[in-house]
Amino acid sequence: GQPNGAASWFPCNDHPRSKSSYLISVTTDENYRPVCNGRLVSRSRKSSRETWVYEHAEPMATYLATVQIGRYLMVSLNRDDHHHR
User: Can you give the residue ranges of every domain in the chain?
Assistant: First the structure.
């Protein structure tokens, strides 16, 4: 929702000049993974549910915030990564 659709899914001052850092916490059923802005800072499991916490420390406009939830697999884009496991 550019530039002012974020308020349809979370409370905010939805103006492109109004920027903020973000801490996004998402709880999913097992076998699902959320992908959000920022860096994954924690992941915990309780029964068949997982909670994922992402932090985006730099101020960002609300319309750039995203949460995608699906059955995603983590794939390394670094060809040499398999040598370091």
Answer: 6-72
CATH superfamily membership of 6-72:
tricorn interacting facor f3 domain (2.60.40.1730)
Classify residue 6 as exposed, middle or buried by CB count within 10 Å of its CB (0-12, 13-18, 19+).
buried
The β-bridge relationship of strands 67-70 and 19-29 is unpaired
pLDDT band at 7 (very low <50, low <70, confident <90, very high): confident
Query: What average pLDDT does this structure show over 24-52?
Result: 96
- For residues 34-59, average pLDDT: 96
For residue 25, give Cα distances in angstroms to 1, 17, 66: 21, 24, 12
| Helices and strands, counts by H and E, the chain | 0, 5
* Closest residue by Cα to residue 23 from 10, 11, 39: 39
First to last CA, the chain: 40
